[in-house]
Each structure stands twice: as C-alpha cells, then as structure tokens.
Automatic annotation (TrEMBL):
Keyword set, alphabetical order: Carboxypeptidase, Hydrolase, Metal-binding, Metalloprotease, Protease, Signal, Zinc
Cofactor requirement: Zn(2+)
Keyword Protease among UniProt keywords: yes
Annotated protein name in UniProt: carboxypeptidase T
Cited CDD domains: M14_CPT
Keyword Zinc: yes
GO BP: any one term: proteolysis
C-alpha cells in the first residue's frame, strides 16, 4: 500500500531545499508549538530552547530544521511561522532603504552626536561605560539644563539588552528625536524637557548588536568570552536582584546564561551605576516581540509586588496608546536578574518592559509604524514620572477622582515613589488639600476622608501629617471665630 506524503513532509522538504543555497547562516526555522501546558512551556524554557515568543498556551521557537521532526514525534502541534529564517533575514536586509533601515552602533552614535551639535542647550552625550570589545555605552540626556543635576524627576529609556532585537533601539531613538524636535514648538514636549531629566541608552549591548548585524543574526547575548571558550552572557539575567533564582541558565553556552555572578557584565554595571547616580523615578526597557507591557515581579509568579496596583494602573494607561496587553512579567515565565525587578526593588523606579511588534524580525517598513505606535506611551510615562497616581502636572489641579475613600488612600500611599524634587512640594500641597477636606467633612458630618486615612497605618507619615494639619486648621478656625469682631 502506498503512503501519501503529509503536508508536514512538503513543508520540511521545501525548507531543506531553500536552505541548500543559503551561505550565511545555519539552517533555522521559526515554528509555533501549540496547545502547551504551563509546565511544558517552563520545561522547554529550562532546557534552553531558543524561544522567541511566549503566548498563553504556545511558544514560538527558533529550531534547527532537524529538530522540527523531533517535536512532531512528541505529539505536539507544530506550525511553521517563518519556514526559512535565513532567506527571510536576507530579504529583510535587502529591503532596507535610506528612509527605512535599522540603526547600527555607528549610525546611532553619529545621530546622537548630530543632535548634541544641533540642540546643545537641551541635550548632552555621555559614555556610561565600556564593553568587553571596548565600545562606549552611550547615554543621551535630554533636559533644559543637561549639564546640571536639577533634582527633577529622572526617567531612563533603554534598548537592545538583547542583541538580535534590533527594533528595541528604534523606539528610544524615535522618542528622543520627538522631544528634541518638539522643544519650543510643542507645549507638552517643551514642558517635559523643562521638568524632567530624560536619559536614553538605546543600545545597552553594542557588542552583541554589532555581532548580530554583521556575523550571526540570531545572536542574543553580549560578547564576553566565557571560561569554557563559549561567548556571551544574557544581560537581562545579570542584574543583582534575585539573580539566578528562575528563568536563567548556568550553562555558558545557553542563550539565557546568567553570568558567573550578579553584575559580572560591563553592560549591567553601567546601568547599575547610572541608576545609583540618577535615582530614576521610572524606566522602560525595550525588547521584542509580542506586543506586551510587562512589570514586576519577573522573578516569581507566586506573589505580586507591593505596588502592583500602581503598576497595573500605569500599564493600562500606556496600553491605551499602543493597544498592547499589560501584565505582570512572570505571567509569561519567571526570570530573575532582570532590569524591571532590579530597578524597582533597589530604587523604587516605576519599571516596565515593552515587548515590541508581532513578528520575530520586523521588516524595515514596519519600523516607523512601530515607533509611532509606542512613542506616545513612552511620553505618557515620562509625563507621569514623579507625579504618580492622581497627582497631575504643575499648573493643573492637584486632586482628581478623589470621590471614594479607596481613591484617596491609593493616592496617599504613593509616597514611597516620591523623589526629592518638586514632587515633595506637590505632595505637601496634596497634604494640605486633604487636611482641608478632612476639616470640611467633619463640619458637614461626612466621613469619606477619615475613612480613607483609616486604611493607612496610624503611624503612616502622610496620615500623621494630614491629621496634624487638620488639627491646626481647626485650632486656627476656633481662635479666629472667638476673636473676630461682631
């Protein structure tokens, strides 16, 4: 009896035939493994498979063509996403034009240097460290007095922790460009530059990015030479908070190798030292892909961080701009030693990761639309940095949506994020306003503000200050009433 070839056979044959003429990269294909349980997904992650995307019940995995049949034998549904990655990559590079192309390390530096020359009053360029291959890690500061530390709310925007995620450099660069070109032309952008210190590190991992663009498109790590002769550490598994507890490999050859120790890498040391100096109020680290907005915790899915409600609020607000899905990072999979957990746990920065785009390697014509989709979300976080929750910018009402005790309590409990700058003054005005409300409520027989304060510990600094102010207001009102002329 004859056996008819299956559709999978035709697909595999086509991939093998196409790859026969590919001289640059090893034979690779991107497939979707569907119908997976969370345990299966974590196991494939633990085994070190090159996972490009995590879904609710699927993974998209870069495989050698020979590995594909092994997965089908396990009874898994295997669907080709990009059957011939090598050919696709070649087509992507060929599609680059002068108007639509990815930044290289050199063109990124040249562009930022041009900005400094064109806008010297509102930006400066600084090397925050050197890489293993002696490249500078460049940081661009945008502010109305870029040479001065004005103690304004500081924000950090990062890209390219992972070398092959080229699109992750594009959004930071596009955001910086929008701020510089809009200064003096657009009221909102001008205000952001005047009232914030905005730092951009568009290429945290320039060694890896350069290697990905010139040698191996699939390269993910940096270019440290490991003790066993292999190369590279995953920078986004090398930060010091909960390093090595989950989602990272101890094998130097693995794509998620965590490194020999926390902050063993020059790239993560550079970000650590910049954050220690600048005390960022908020930050975004760009990655790809999946159209997600992620926030702490990353290291565990067994618990939520202390300020989960605040992260959820801002994630939802930013998602309204780019139509991404906002969620706790570990809802995908737990991973220790990443930027979000470190910057939040250490500096109480409002830390997010954006997973850009819907495809493994966006074509050049998608760069501009992806940037246009995400820059407004970045600007929103920059605007909110240092004025969290329901506190609005200078010149506008400080209080909004305080109709319920829970809303008041949520706002009062944002004080851990207050940086030592104009936010302190805003919180003081908020304190006085809430004290006035407490006095007015007491006079009118209302209890909303008192109920809100009761949700906080009796020794909470903000609660004590509000109750003290209210007592002083009542005392002043009594004295004023008793001594007033008839």
């Amino acid at each position: 009896m004859s056996r008819r070839p299956t559709p999978f056979f035709f697909w595999l044959f086509a991939v093998l035939l196409a790859l026969a003429g590919s001289p640059v990269f090893a034979a690779k294909t991107l497939v979707r493994l569907e119908g997976l349980t969370p345990a299966q997904m974590q196991e494939y992650h633990r085994q070190g498979y090159d996972i490009a995307r995590y879904g609710k019940d699927f993974l998209e995995v870069v495989l050698e063509v020979a590995e594909v049949r092994a997965f089908t034998k396990r009874g898994l549904r295997v669907t080709p996403v990009i059957p011939d990655l090598d050919r696709y990559i070649a087509e992507v590079r060929a599609a680059e034009t002068a108007e639509a192309k990815y930044y290289t390390y050199q063109t990124m530096y040249e562009t930022m240097q041009t900005w400094v020359e064109k806008y010297p009053k509102i930006c400066r360029l600084e090397s925050i460290g050197k890489t293993f291959e002696n490249r500078d890690i460049w940081a661009l500061k945008i502010s109305d007095h870029p040479q001065v530390d004005e103690k304004e709310p500081a924000v950090l925007i990062m890209g390219a922790h992972h070398a092959r995620e080229w699109i992750s450099t594009e959004v930071p660069m596009a955001t910086a460009k929008a701020l510089l070109e809009g200064y003096g032309q657009d009221e909102r952008l001008t205000r952001l530059v005047n009232e914030r210190e905005i730092w951009f590190v568009p290429m945290v991992n320039p060694d890896g990015m350069t290697y990905s663009q010139t040698v191996n498109r699939y390269w993910r790590k940096n270019r440290r030479k490991n003790a066993d002769g292999s190369f590279g550490v995953d920078p986004n598994r090398n930060y010091g908070y909960k390093w090595g507890v989950a989602g990272a490999s101890t094998s130097p050859s693995a794509d998620t190798y965590q490194g020999p120790s926390p902050f063993s890498e020059l790239e993560t040391q550079a970000i650590r030292d910049l954050a220690a100096r600048e005390k960022f109020s908020a930050d975004i680290s760009f990655h790809s892909y999946s159209e997600l907005i992620l926030y702490p915790w990353s290291w565990t899915n067994k618990e939520k961080c202390e300020h989960d409600a605040i992260f959820a609020k801002f994630g939802k607000e930013m998602a309204a701009f780019n139509r991404y899905t906002s969620q706790q990072s570990s809802d995908l999979y737990p991973s220790g030693g990443d930027t979000d957990d470190y910057l939040y746990a250490t500096h109480k920065s409002l830390s997010f990761t954006f997973e850009l785009a819907t495809t493994f390697i966006p074509t050049p014509d998608k760069i501009a639309p992806i940037c246009a989709q995400n820059v407004p979300a970045v600007l929103h976080l920059i605007e909110k940095a240092g004025t969290y929750g329901l506190v609005t910018p200078v010149g506008e009402d400080l209080i909004a949506d305080l109709d319920t005790p829970s809303a008041v309590a949520a706002l009062v409990d944002l004080t851990p994020f207050a940086s030592q700058n104009d936010v302190a003054a805003r919180l003081r005005r908020l304190e006085v306003e809430l004290a006035r409300r407490l006095v007015a409520d007491q006079a009118a027989g209302r209890t909303a503000t008192a109920e809100a304060l009761a949700q906080l510990p009796s020794d909470h600094p903000m609660r004590r200050a509000i109750e003290r102010d209210a007592a002083q207001m009542l005392a002043f009102a009594t004295v004023h009433r008793d001594t007033a002329r008839p």
